[in-house]
Amino acid sequence: MRYRWETPASVWQEDERSGEFELLATEGLGRIDWQAHAHSRLPDVARLLGASLPDACACAPIYPEGFAFCPNCGRSLLRLPGTPARQAGWWGPGVDATLPRHVPHGLPVTSLPLGDSLEERPAAPHVGRHDLAMPVPPNAQCVFAASHYGFPEQRLLALAHTRGVLQYWDPVAGLWHVMAPDDGAAGLAFTASCYAWLPVLEPRRGEVAIVPTSSGLHRLWINPVSETYRTEPVLEAPLVAAPGAMRRHIACLVCPDADAGGTVRLWSARSDLLEVEEFACPDIPRAGWSRPIGYDGRLFWLHDQGQLAWRPGQPPLFTPWPPGWLPRLDFGGPTQSRDGRLWHIGHDGQGYSFLELGTDRPESAPIDGARLGFANFLFRRGHPVVDEPWSGEHIEDLNQDDTLVLPLLRAFNNNRSQPSGLVLRFHKYTGRAEEALEARVLPRTTVEWIGRRNVILDEVVRLSRPLDCVPFVYAGCLWLHHPDWNEIRGWRLEDPA
Where on the tree of life does the source sit, at the highest rank (predicted)? Predict the structure, then answer.
């Protein structure tokens, strides 16, 4: 005989002979494949559902939500919280909705107070080591998202968007799981441009984000119990560039008739997907765009051929770069001058210069060398630039003249007069910045935190393709991933206790 138990969110079935419970259905997760589950996954499933686990008995490996005692032996159970976590989520260095409006959105800038903890470590020249490690996902070229997705605990996803593979980290078992698509789910591959997704700030159970795919925009849902995902269409049209959000609107570039040489169009809607508008964007590229940048009430998409600016409710404006001037999109991203204007670095064949964004008659400011960074977090060689983007570097240590600093992540803090963040420092390097960012092998690199105190977090030997380094924050730690490494390195931001 089998007994049926119903909780506010789930339906369970108890086997009278074995005394074990089987989950039949639960809110928001769709079809449940319980039989395919090994017992090693049940501790993670219990934490996601807010179910109960055995503490002093061995009658069953898992119990329905709210059970305080085993119905067979009467021993107490470990009741897990069932309310969604309120821990801040992570959607990539370019997605932070809590940043103030005067900070460009879409660049590697976060509002998380990372420096408050990292700067308590021994300062340079002491060389630190990472505190903990995590195995690299099976598909290592990926982007990361850490959020609660409507569950009681935060969980980490790794999306290999070039292959369309979604991976789920089980922190209890210490394993990555590849999630299978439900019947009818859209493929998650997207390679037309740089990747960006739109997170859901108040998700329903299992709701992840609005994601770009080769077939359009889709709402992504995960089922960690069955290790599957499903999608719901938001916009069915081939995408040219990743979507962006500006206040209460979202927008993306589409090309419905790409095979027939059709025109690129900008599709926009309110965040509730009402008030849809489309604007023709003739003669603009169909691939190769940066992820969108939000600033001054507009979204910007950048390309080797020009910039596209759009303000909600108005037609977009594509402005080609001046003749002979090429942007350096790999150098980081736009930065701001003290009067609030946005600038991007490029090269005109003779030298580097900053070009103003968002105007059809841009000003230009020549500079005496490459500068890497974004959003006022700039470095010329091994020295910070602390005034205007075109100002001279601030030299504190002449020994850093033969190093090159690549910023990875800026931590925004209103209480700091100078920007702080995570960087890579290439030692004994005097070549061109472009060569360091491509296929050149860098003999010695240090992972550093630049702030009130400069802290060397770790050291890397023989690093190549440094732009593939991906920082993310998950479970109270700052992590750094590179597809060539065997493990992801982590540094604690909170007291382990």
Answer: Bacteria
